[in-house]
Fold each of these.
Amino acid sequence: MNPSQNLKGKRKRHCRKKKKKKPTKKTAGGNLPISQLVPGEVWNDISPNFAIFFALNKGEPCSAAVAPPLLGSLLPSPVRLPAHKSPSSTALRPHPATFQPRIFPSARENLAFAVLAPYGEKYSGGCSVLAWPVVGVVRTAMRRRGGVGDSGGGSGGDIVRAEGKLGVAQHGRAGRWWLPWLRTLLLAPLLTYVSFPFLIRLFPSLLNKFVYLNFLSFPLFVDFRRPELLVNNTINLYLTTEPGVTVGIWHTVPSSRGAEAQGKDQRWYEEALADAHPVIIYLHGNGGTRAARHRVQFLKAMGAADFHILALDYRGYADSTGYPSENGFNTDVLALYDWVKARSGNSSILFWGHSLGTGIATNAARKLQEERGVQIGAVVLESPYTNIRDAAANIPITKIFRQFPGFGYLILDSMARAGMFFPSDENVKMLSCPLLILHADDDGVVPPKLGHQLYETALQAYRDKSKVKLITFPQKLGLGHDYISFHPELPALVKDFLNMK
C-alpha cells in the first residue's frame, strides 16, 4: 500500500474522530434513548427552570413531559425535584416539547428518570434516578464538561448502575408507600366539601337524613315492648296515625299510682288517663329513640311529679313505621292528641317539645287552635329555635360551610324546597295558651340566643304577657342541650308556671 494513501486514511479517520467529539446541540423534541443523554449537551429550546420527567417501566415506552419543578407536585406523577435556579430567566411557562416514546428494555422496573435542563445550559444541574412513586431514592451527580472527574460516559445504563441498586429503590419505595394514600386522603375531603352544597341544592331531599337523623337509633339493643326494664310504671303501645303508619309510644303513669299499676294491662293504663292528673305528650328531638338516656330521665322526673307522660317516636324513628316529614309529624302528634283526649276526660293536656320537637309542638298547637278552635293546655319548649332555617344557620355542623359562597342559597334555602320549615317564631304569634321556654346558657347545639329571640317574639304577640315565661339555666350547671331533665327543680318550676300545687 502506498504510504501517502495510508497517511490520508489515518487523517480521514482522525478527522472523523474529532467530529465525533464536537459538542452537538440537541433539542428536547429529539428521539433520544437514555444512553444518549450524556453530560455536556446543550438544549437551547428548553424553557428556563423546567424539568423533563420520564416514567419508565421495563420493556415499555417512556412517557415524557416538560414541566416546571416548582409545579411538580401538581403533576399526575408524584415526582418532585428541587427547583433549579437559572440566572438567565425568572419566568415559568409551559413548553410543548415532549420526547417520543422509546423502548428501554434495560430500564429497571418502576423507575423514573428526571433531568434538569436550564435554558441554554448543559443539563449538568443534576440527574436523579427516582423510584416510583418515591422521590430522591438514588441520586447521581453529573459534572459540567471540563469539571473535575468525568462521569465516565454518562450513559443511561451507567446512571442506573452508579447507585441504582434495586434494594435501595425498594427500601425507599417501602418507606414512602403512604404518599399516594396521603394525597388521596387530603383530596377526598376537599372534593366532598366543594360538592356537598351543590348536591344539596340539586337533591334537597338529602337534607332529611341530616336534619332528622332517624337512622341513629340509639341506644342499641332496646326491647321497646318492655319499657319497665328502663323506667317503672310504664307500658308500651302502638297507635295507627294514618293508613300504613304505626307509631310506638311509652305511657308512664304518675308515681302516686305506681303500686296500683303493677301487673296491669293497657286497658288499665288507658282508663288511668282520666284520673285528673295532667298529661304530657312528649315530643323528642332528632336522632335516637324514646329510650335515650335523657328521655328516660324525663319520664322518671315528670312521672315522680304526678304527670302522665306519653313519649312518642315519630314515623321513621325506632320501631315506628313510615318515613319522617314535617307534615307526617303533625299527623302523628294530632292523632295521639285525639287518642289521649278521648280517654282523659277533663285532664289538662300539654305539648312538651325538645330541640327538633319544639317546632313540632308549636305546629301541632297552632293547627289545633286554627283548624279546630281547640286551645292546648300549655306548650313547653326545651332548647328551642326560631325556625329550622335559623337553626341550620347556627348549629355547629354547618359552621364549616358558612363561609362557602352561596351558603344561604345552596343549603339554607334548600330546606324549604325539601318541605322543612318548623316556623315556631310564626306559630307563637298565633297561640294564646300558656308558653314556657327552657334554655341552658351552655347549649352547644341550639344557641341560647334563638331561645331568647323566640321568647321576645311571643312576648310581643301575646296580649296576656303573664302566659309567656323564659327560664334559663346557668352554664355552671352543665346541662347543655340535652340534660335539663336532670335538673332536680325542673318539675317544681313547671308546676309553678302552671299554677299547680
Amino acid sequence: WNHRWEYDKAPEVFFRTLFRLKEEGVPFRLIVLGRSYRKAPEIFEAARHRLKEEILHFGYAKSRAEYARLLWQADILPVTSRQDFFGGSVAEAIFCNCYPLLPNRLAYPEHIPEEKHAVHLYENEEELYSKLRDAVLRIGAIRERAAFRDFVARYDWSILVADYDKAFGQLAQIKPK
C-alpha cells in the first residue's frame, strides 16, 4: 500500500483481502506507506494489530529515499482505489518493479500493456483475492518476471517535457477571436 490513508482508496477492501490470506495460512509480508491528512479510516489501526507479524513497515516514509527503498523492496502492489485521476503512486510502484494488481477502472488500465490486462486487472474483490493469492504463492516466479518499468517510464518528466513545451508553444501562437 503506497497511497493516502483515505476512504476513497478503499482500504477496507485491501485489508479484508489480506486478513483472508492470513486466515488461510498464506504467508506474506506487508509494507504500508502513505500519508494520513485527517483521521485515518479505523481499518488501518485494526490492520496494524491483526497483521503485526506480517508488517515490515507501517506508516509514512521519513524521506523520498526511504519511500523508494521500500517500494524497491516490495514485490506486489494490490490496488483497491475507487477514485484516482492518474495514479501517480501506482506508476511509482510499477517503476520499482512491483507486480500490479489493479481494478479495471479509472486510469489503471493505461499503466500496463493491453496484452497484460487479463493477468493484472480485476473486476471485483473475489477476483482480487484470487489473483493476489496466486501471486503470493508464486512469488519466486513473480520476482523473475518481466516488469513494466519501461512502460511507465514514459511518464517521466524528462521524457514529457518536450511534448509539453511543444503544446504550450502552439497554444501561445493561437490568437484570440
Amino acid sequence: MKPIKASYQWTVDELATAQVYHNNISGRRARWIRYGGLIIMLGATLSLAFFRGQFSWTVFGLVGVAYLGVVISEVLRHPSMVHRAAEKAFVDRPDKDKMVRFEFDDEAILSGTEGFGESTIHWDDIQRVIETPTGFLFYLNKQVYIWVPEEAIKPKNDIGRLRELVQEKIENYVDEAV
C-alpha cells in the first residue's frame, strides 16, 4: 500500500482548533454530571423552600456557588476563550509555525516536525481516533493527541483511504464528522 501523506504548518489556529475539538469531546460526560448535579441541588433547594417551608440561605448560597462554577467552566470552554489561551501558550512553543508531516501506512505512522526530527508511532500505541468535521484526533492516551487536519491530506481522495485504514487498525474509532 502506498503511504498516505499529510503536511501542514503548525499555527495557533491549528492548535486552537484541535483543543476545541478535544475539549468538546473529552468534557461531555463531566459536563452532564455537572448539569445533573446542579439540577438535583436546585430541585432539592426549591423543594425545601416551597414544599416544606424551610429556607436556608446557606443551602441556597451553595447552589448559587455551584451554578457560578458551572457557568465559569462553560465560559472557559468556549471556543473564543480556548483560542485566546492557545495564543498565549503558542508564543513560547519551539515548534510554532513549523511544517508538520505524517505518513500513514499499514505498519505505523511516521511523524516529523521541521527542525525536530522524526518519530514512529505504531498503530498499537494509539488508544482511539476521533474524526471531526475538519480532521482527525489520534489519541495516545486520554490527554495526549495528535491533530491531523483534513486539508493537510493530499490528494483529497486519500482522506477516505485514511478513514478506512484507521477503521481497520483502531478498534476505538469514533466518527464525529457529522
Amino acid sequence: MKKVLDHRFQLMELLGEGRIGRVYRARDLLESRDVALKMPHDWHTRNPEFRARFRRELLTGMRLRHACIVRSLETGEHDGTPFLVSELIEGVPIQQWFYSTNRDYEALAEVLEQLLDALEYAHSRRVVHQELKPANILIDKDGSPKMLDFGLAGRLEDQLRIGPHPESGLAYLSPEQAMGERGDQRSDLYALGAVLFHLLAERPLMRAEEPADFLLSHLNESPPALSALRGDVPVWLERLVARLLLRRPDQRPQSANEVLHWVRRRRQSDGVAQQRQAPILGRAAEREKLQEALSGLEEGRGQMVRISGPPGAGKTLLVEDLLQRANERDFLTVRIESTADSVMHLGSIAAHFEDPELPLFERILESAMAMPLVLVLEGIHRAHDSVAELLGELMALVEDAPLLVVVTDRPDELENETLSAQLEAFEERIKLDGLDWEACAQLIEE
C-alpha cells in the first residue's frame, strides 16, 4: 500500500531528488487531483533553524501568484518533517525544450520575456529565488515557462555539502553568493545569465570537480565569448548574457524589468528599415561618417550627428540606410518623425521609452547602456522648445554612453533660436547639397 501523508496525500512515484529534498508525484485524495509534494532530506530536518526557515519560506512562496511561477497549494508535516504541496507541471526542463525547437531564438525570446516578467513580479514583493538553474525552469505543453522552488534555496554551506552533482546550483551561483552573501534580485539575474549561457553554449558556464573550484571559478574567471563557442547566437542575446554575467552586481542590469525592456526593444527594432527604397548615390563620404559613428557605439562611444539639407536632398535615404546597418548589428533603433501637421514634442519621444517615473534623458541613457541605441529625430526644425532642452541634456552625456543621436533638419525652416543654438553645437554635421554630375548620370542610368 502506498504511503499517505497527513491522511490526504498519497505518494505515487519519485519524480526527482535535489540538494533540498525529494519531489514526489502525489494524489490529493481530498481534491481528487495529482500534485507535486516536496520533502526535505532528513539531515535538513534535524536542524531546528532549517525547519523554521523552511516553513517560513514555504509561506512566502504561497503568496506568489503569477502564471509563470509554480503555485504552492498546501503545507503539512509528517513524522516531524515539513512538506510542501504544489501544482504538478507536466513539462520538460528548459534546455531540453530549447534543443527540441532546433534552437529557435524567437521562441526563446518569448519565453525569456515571460520569465523576466515573473522575476520582476517576485522581486517587487521582496522574494528572491536564489537558485535559478535549468532544472528549476520547466516548459509546459503550451510552451509557457514555469519556475519552481521560489524561496526554497538553502544556504551556501548546504550547497557545498551536496557538491557539484548535476542537480547542484553551484554552476549558476553569483560571485557575491560565492562569497557567502545572501544575494538579491541581481543575483537572480546573474543566475538567469548562467542558465542562458548553458542553453546557448550547450555546456555549463562553470565546470569543476570540487565545490571549492566552482567558487573560485565564479570569483576569478571571465565567461568565454558565446560567439567563440557557437556562431549562430544573435548579437543582442550574446550581449545580454555578457551583461548579466558581469562580476559586480552594480555593473549588471539592476532589475528584471530593465532586462525585459532590452528584450522587448530588440524585438521592436527588428522590422525597422529592412530595405532601401532607392539607391544611395553620391553620398559615399556621408555614409562613411555614419558608419564610423556606428562603429563608435560598439566601443561605448556616442555621438550627436546633424544631417541638414533642403527637401529632396536625400536626408531620409541616409537615415534609412543608417537604420538598416544598425539593425544588422542588432542595435536598438528608435525613429521619430515630425511633419508639417505635427510638432515634435517630448511626449512623442517619451512614448518609445518605458519607466515614466524617470526623467526622459535618463530613460534614453538607460536604454543605451542596456544595448547600443540609435535615436533618430527627423524634421527637428519643427520641434518644441522642450526638445531643444532634451538635446542639451543628451549632449552632456553622449560621449560616455553607446548612444547615437541623429537629427535631420531643413536650415531654411529653422526658426527656433534655442534649437538652432543647440544644433550648432553638434559635434558632426552632414550638410547635403545637390548631387554632382557624375552622381546624377548614375542615377539616370539606374
